[in-house]
Amino acid sequence: ETGVTQTPRHLVMGMTNKKSLKCEQHLGHNAMYWYKQSAKKPLELMFVYSLEERVENNSVPSRFSPECPNSSHLFLHLHTLQPEDSALYLCASSQAFGETQYFGPGTRLLVL
Amino acid sequence: QKEVEQNSGPLSVPEGAIASLNCTYSDRGSQSFFWYRQYSGKSPELIMSIYSNGDKEDGRFTAQLNKASQYVSLLIRDSQPSDSATYLCAVNGGSNYKLTFGKGTLLTVNP
Prior knowledge:
heterodimer, A: seven-stranded mixed sheet, B: mainly beta, 55% strand
């Protein structure tokens, strides 16, 4: 499935670094999502965008900053992360709210 | 707090058997229900969606929904070793955009 792409696929960063995760969807969808998946925990919804407007900020620390410049692209800017932020970060998109979400391959993040 | 509960497993079945995966949810207003499969190190991929009570079949997969009991299940017939993965149940909690995921059930199909 290449409908949703994410880069980079793997990222190692120190706690003082700044990095960005990128997501692009080629499905013509109107909604995009960021999820965090940690070991032994359910997928956690972080942010939701609909038509480039943020509609959900699920109590995420400010060291994570999303950006949605258009309906096809979604970024997650990272700064001064903590080791507990190490996880798989997944981007997803759907045609509309409540409809099937399609996931990208994810970015495996390790914070040292 | 809207919750989705799944047995974490592992659920182990022999090749060719029927694997039965179960999920319960707490929000009675839920409208949409999804089963995703996630291989180790990969992202979730959609297997089935179901919106109304009853059974929905797609190949070897059957999803069953019982809204009165707040229960959704996935049956995999003629299980294959390639079906070995974690199966995630996801429920749209009535707020239209938020999917709540269970922790997933690890299924192992033994040759």
